[in-house]
Design a protein that fits this description.
CATH topology of chain A: TIM Barrel
Order of helices and strands of chain A: EHEHEHEHEHEHEHH
Distance between the termini of chain A: 24 Å
Structural class of chain A: alpha/beta
Radius of gyration of chain A: 17 Å
Number of helices of chain A: 8
Radius of gyration of chain B: 16 Å
CATH superfamily of chain A: Metal-dependent hydrolases
Largest sheet of chain A: 7 strands, parallel
Structural class of chain B: mainly alpha
Oligomer: heterodimer
Number of strands of chain B: 0
Helix content of chain B: over 70%
Strand content of chain A: 5-15%
Shape of chain B: flat
Helix content of chain A: 40-55%
Number of helices of chain B: 3
């Protein structure tokens, strides 16, 4: 990844492949992603940042969620923690919605960025609409909120509401490298974020590079590519002063 | 050999992904027509894809030879 130009990775607190039962398990996990992983990535010349949250898939456990939320401010202070994420919805249940609200409230109280997951596949449109309704009922700063996993059917309402819209590329289940470029060509790019993933399901970090190559193949300039794939993340994440990677200009 | 249910469960998401790519490619073409103000001089590849989807949209192919039918169909395009 470093050899292909990746300068940083941002690891959201994620589902572990099973539902955790104890708040302490989350706390140890937060310590791993905020303390150990930056040292591991540094060996390869890549900056490592993290987000902390109870993932939506585990938000059904209200007692656990409340206890983890109580301990999260300690981790928001860590030098590589960028904010609260990923929160959001998986099946759009009442407990998930309550957890989303609590996470966003905590983030706003501590002036943090927020990374919001929207559901996959069949619940995508409904879940995204619900996320927007929840946020509309809260006192939030849209500049600080990244709503992720937008696709053709959900990007417009996210952008219209003033949020940053993220496309996390996947080889099978979500937005593909080519479809991301179609979206980049169709909508204003100022609040679009494109990234890839390495998680428990079929995923491929190099879908990001595939998308960049596709973008360039269609005749877009190197600087336009830099604006989207490097500078936009710097602009959004740079709202947190811990992110000190600056937008760059290519001189040709 | 996979059971009927296992076949659908195993390959549904990949087929969904592939259909979305076809849809996006056709959208890409329409967008380019809108942008440039004119259609491609030779639209035979587009019509070929649309015809292929017609072949696929028939629910019953007793010989289970859709791939063979598509290859025969595509062989008409140079």
């Amino acid at each position: 990844m470093a050899m292909s130009g990746v300068v940083a990775v941002c690891e959201p607190a994620f589902w572990a492949g099973f539902d955790r039962r104890h708040p302490e398990t989350f706390i140890d996990y937060f310590a791993q992603i905020s303390e150990f992983e930056p040292t591991r990535a540094a060996e390869f010349g890549i900056r490592h940042y993290c987000w902390v949250a109870v993932n939506p898939k585990e938000a059904e456990n209200r007692e656990l969620t409340e206890e983890v939320l109580r301990q999260m401010p300690e981790f928001l202070e860590k030098p590589t923690c960028l904010g609260v994420g990923e929160t959001g919805l998986h099946k759009s249940t009442a407990n998930e919605i309550e957890s989303l609200q609590a996470h966003v409230e905590l983030a706003m109280k501590h002036d943090q960025l927020v990374l919001i997951h929207t559901p996959h596949l069949s619940d995508k449109a409904h879940g995204t609409k619900t996320v927007l309704e929840v946020l509309a009922g809260m006192d939030v700063n849209p500049d600080k909120i990244w709503i992720d996993h937008v696709e053709e059917q959900t990007i417009e309402p996210v952008l219209d509401a003033g949020y940053w819209a993220g496309m996390t590329l996947y080889p099978v289940t979500k937005c593909s490298p080519r479809r991301a470029v179609d979206i980049l060509e169709k909508y204003p790019r100022e609040r679009l974020l494109v990234n890839s993933s390495a998680d428990w399901g079929p995923s491929d970090p190099f879908t990001l590079q595939e998308s960049i190559v596709e973008f360039r193949r269609r005749g877009h300039s190197l600087q336009d590519a830099v604006e989207i794939y490097h500078n936009n993340p710097c602009r959004f994440l740079g709202q947190n002063p811990k992110w000190d990677i600056k937008p760059i200009t290519i001189s040709e | 050999m996979l059971s009927p249910q296992k076949t659908l469960d195993t390959y549904y998401l990949e087929a969904r992904r592939d259909l979305l790519e076809v849809a996006a490619m056709l959208d890409r073409y329409d967008q380019s027509v809108k942008r440039d103000g004119e259609k491609a001089q030779d639209e035979s590849k587009r019509f070929s894809l649309l015809k292929a989807m017609e072949i696929l949209s028939n629910p019953d192919h007793p010989s289970a030879n859709r791939a063979e039918q598509l290859l025969n169909h595509f062989s008409e395009i140079s």
